[in-house]
User: Fold this.
Amino acid sequence: MWVHIVIFVMILCVLTGWKKGWIPSSGIGGREGIRLFAAVAISGNLLGMVLTAGNGRQVYPQGYRLEKEASGSYEKEFMVSVDGEDQGTLYIQVPEKELEEEEEPQQDRKLTGEEQAKKDLAEAVARYNEQKNDPDYYYLPDKLDGKKMKWEIPADTSGMLLTGLFLAAAMVILVMKGREEQVKLQKRYEELLLDYPGLIMKFTLLVQAGMTVRKAFQKISLDYGRKKKKKPRPAYDEIQVICYEMESGVSESEAYRRFGERCGQVKYKTFATLLIQNLQKGSRQMAEMLERESMEAWEERKRKARVLGEAAATKLLLPMMMMLVVVMAIVMIPAFLSFYGGIG
Assistant:
């Protein structure tokens, strides 16, 4: 039972560390992963604790007797101690089996001290029951040769096994959620890269048309809000966040800095730094810098498109090979059949 209590304490420590921020949730499935892990682990530990409590070690009372069944013999496992000293596990078969002929070949083998003690104990119990000579019951003596005996049945380990299975399942869920989170982050990273050229070109055109930086962001956010239901894009979602922050009283420079941090990529951080410098120093060459940045971003987008195209061609190689094999089979099998048919 104490093992289940230790497991509960460990789960509580994990949840406390997560709540306090000592254990980061990123990389292990986030909040959902932690909650699923805790739910599965706690549920399994509770079920295991119930089984352990219901199937714990059972101590038999003095003079306990086992009923002899008319259908046949059966065997039970006991832990026996003599005068408080553990004698190990002893298997009792009711009624006793007669193995005189089968045990003769084993008499030449030298028994260890533990095996000899178990053998002597089994023989003493057998003699005790021969003296009782009860046709209906088999007795577990509480005293033998003046020594006090204690009979117990070992605790069932199914509760611990169930707890272990649930803990393993909880860890698997945590790993799966972690991988799912990594896939989402990678997808967001790629979408941010793909969105950057279009975003920077649109922003450059609006600034060159005479809009301020704040108005350009509001215009992009408004246009995206009308099309958001069709296909959400992470970069434009972050633009909307910028507008919401500035409307709620956050300064422009702080909003741009947070924008770069949330995107977490060098290109977006460079763009945010450019905007902050424009606010602080009033750069006259901002339009030219934006235009140069947009051209570089577009060239990078074209290179990325070529890489993706080559990757797609590589993925199509296996299906093309399979189709080639099918086509060759369609052409060659009738030719072989007609050739061998003509010979026959």
